[in-house]
Amino acid sequence: MPSFTAHLAAPLSAPLTSRIDTGDTAWLLAASALVLLMAPGLALFYGGMVRSKSVLNMIMMTFGALAVITVVWVLVGYSLAFGDDVGGGLLGDPLQHLGLQSLMKPSADTWLSVPVILFAVFQGLFAVITGALVSGAIADRARFGAWIVFVAVWTVVVYAPVAHWVFDLDHPGHSGGWLANKVGLVDFAGGTAVEICSGASALALAMVIGTRIGFGKEAMRPHNLTLVMLGAGLLWFGWFGFNAGSALKADHTAAVVFVTTLCAGAAGALGWLGIERLRDGHATSLGAASGMVAGLVAITPSCSSLSPLGALVMGAAAGVICALAVGLKYTFGYDDSLDVVGVHMIGGIVGTVGIGLLATAAAPAGIDGLFYGGGVDQLGKQVLAAAVVLVYAFVASGIIGLVVDRLMGLRIDEEHEVSGIDLVVHAETAYDLHATAGTRTGTLLGHRD
């Protein structure tokens, strides 16, 4: 189950000051900053993967998501995700924490060892990353304004309800989501709510917007692999806040999660590189970065359920499977520009379902998967949750995409797509390398010799 199940605060009769732990609070503040760092990391990662004529637009889509999702989350998103349940485990009360006003006073902190307003912001940054991930599937061809509208509506209609199902646990005086509390899903940091949700949403949006001009015919290579590697490194760094921060405590669980996260990222890179070497004859930097991300995606739900050895197996499996899965877009004809489906949706499925196989009761989550004698019960729960989230996110995102496309138009004009989005939409270019080429100081100052 989500991290805070085993980490509720001291008995509610205890004084408030004894329930708020300064060490836990300091750790979650740091972890929240690490998760925030994942946004510019993702912007660089995605920006390097697109062609040079649309790099600024790609980066802006991530920063735009950061801005709009933060506003939506504060206004209503947190209430929908973590408010008292009003629909049989399907949705939180949208008015309970409107604008986070109810969390301003310490008296609101009654069930955690950290201030609830900090927990709200931490979870909001999860929403930011999930939404920003979707943009990678529509790179090179989406209207910026339409994207901002889509991701704002998507946060309310898709992410917040799924977060309620997966992350919102019952605690004294509060009813939470159905997958966590009724089904018994184990998802520590978001294999379903973040990874499968973003991947399925990306698939739907890519199908709505259509393929890029030249897809399948022209080479559309990353324009700057240095940016890709830098972005990947920042993502890995931030992922420790994403996973280990989800312990909500500076404790043994956080330490175990830190280790399994490290193991899976490393093994994922090696798994992907191995496939590349066998299939193509070369181990590439893009493959290393992509494999690392695939391993981290798979360990996100399972980081508290596996041993370090299990994390190595999980990461390697994700690296191999995702390396093979990214080619599905050519088989089925959907243009997932930056492989959000192949890495995040497929990797999320691997990690979520893999809990039912590789989990060990020796890990903090305390459950055994099939390979450790636990039977198929947990495996069935994991499969059900993965399927439900995938279908809901795909269908709902597709409907939102169709409506936005009908009202605003999701796609830029063909002429502008060919010439490049950056100049047309943002009136800027990423690389103004020749502005002063061949000039002299006097000329630059407006003088002639």
UniProtKB/TrEMBL annotation:
Pfam short name (any one): Ammonium_transp
Gene Ontology CC terms: plasma membrane
Residues annotated as transmembrane: 26-46, 58-81, 111-134, 146-167, 187-210, 222-242, 254-275, 282-300, 306-328, 340-363, 383-404
Subcellular location, record wording: Cell membrane; Membrane
Keywords: Ammonia transport, Membrane, Transmembrane, Transmembrane helix, Transport
Positions of the Ammonium transporter AmtB-like domain: 26-431
UniProt-recorded Gene Ontology molecular function terms: ammonium channel activity
Top-level taxon of the source organism: Bacteria
Membrane topology type: Multi-pass membrane protein
Protein's name in the database: Ammonium transporter
